[in-house]
Amino acid sequence: MKRYKQFCSVARALDVVGDRWALLVVRELLLGPRRYSDLLEGLPGIGTNVLSTRLRDLRAAGIVVHRRTPKPTPATVYELTADGRDLRSVVDALVRWGARRLTAPDTDDILDPRWFVGSLAALIDGKTLVEGTTYRLDVDGAPFTLDARGGDIAASHGPPPAATATLKGTLRDFFNATRGDKTAARRLVVEGDVRAANKLLAAMTGAATRTT
Fold first, then answer.
1. How far, rounded to the nearest angstrom, does the alpha carbon of residue 199 sit from its chain's CA centroid?
2. For the chain, where are the E strands, in sequence order?
3. Which is nearest to 41 in space by CA: 64, 25, 54, 57?
4. How far apart are CA 40 and CA 78, in angstroms?
5. pLDDT tens across 155-170, in order?
6. Helical spans, DSSP H, in 124-181
7. Domains of the chain
8. Nearest partner of 153 among 88, 212, 79, 100, judged by Cα
9. Are the C-beta atoms of 199 and 128 separated by less than 8 Å?
10. pLDDT, tens digit (0-9, with 9 covering 90-100), for 59-95
């Protein structure tokens, strides 16, 4: 890990998470614990040596820990510490800043439902949703959970035990809805509490354009 050797809060933060791929590793772990193979798959273009180095440095900095999951399917997973989870506000700010520069994907851009859902949680104003509402999003068939708590929205990978409402659709329709495409929003399939689903749809539609 290289250091800037500047007595400055910004420089000190970048000493820890400023290396290439470091914040993208954090982005992956904000949705929950991941195995090494999951991280490798979720970070296309990263080399195994680079991923190992980033995980080692983030562990040394107290941002990431690894642990063994219990039987019957034991595995080693990486997850954020409390200090690492504090980086969510940093990543969320980058989501909102970057959304202004994100239009249509280039032909060689890779798309992933995980990246979209993590960004969606940062773009939506949680105060517009009913407190305690739990949503299930099925994006290109992959299940995710959105929880509205304390005026905030927490996103995680996997289905919730119980959902107030479910939205299903393609990643492209979800993405286009956040860009203000009401036709794409209407193509999303709603299940469960229609009123709760409509609140999420209203908050989501055009959310990526309301980032100034």
1. 20
2. 34-35, 64-68, 76-80, 134-139, 142-149, 152-157, 165-169, 189-192
3. 25
4. 12
5. 999 999 999 999 999 9
6. 171-178
7. 9-86 (1.10.10.10), 90-209 (3.30.1050.10)
8. 88
9. yes
10. 999 999 999 988 788 899 999 999 999 999 999 999 9
User: CA–CA separation, 68 vs 55, rounded Å?
Assistant: 16
Distances (CA, A) of 187 to 26, 107, 190, 195: 32, 24, 9, 17
- DSSP H or E run through 48: helix 48-60
Partners of residue 92 on adjacent β-strands: none
Please state whether beta strands 134-139 and 142-149 pair in parallel, antiparallel, or not at all (unpaired).
antiparallel
Q: What global pTM score does this model have?
A: 0.92
User: How far, in Å, CA of 6 to CA of 63, rounded?
Assistant: 21
What is the DSSP-derived secondary structure letter of residue 203? H
Note whether 63 and 23 are within 8 A (CB).
no
Residue 208 dihedral angles phi and psi, to the nearest 5°: -70, -15
**Vertex 105: Cα angle to 125 and 23 (nearest 5):** 60
Among 155, 126, 116, 147, which residue's Cα sits nearest to residue 32? 155
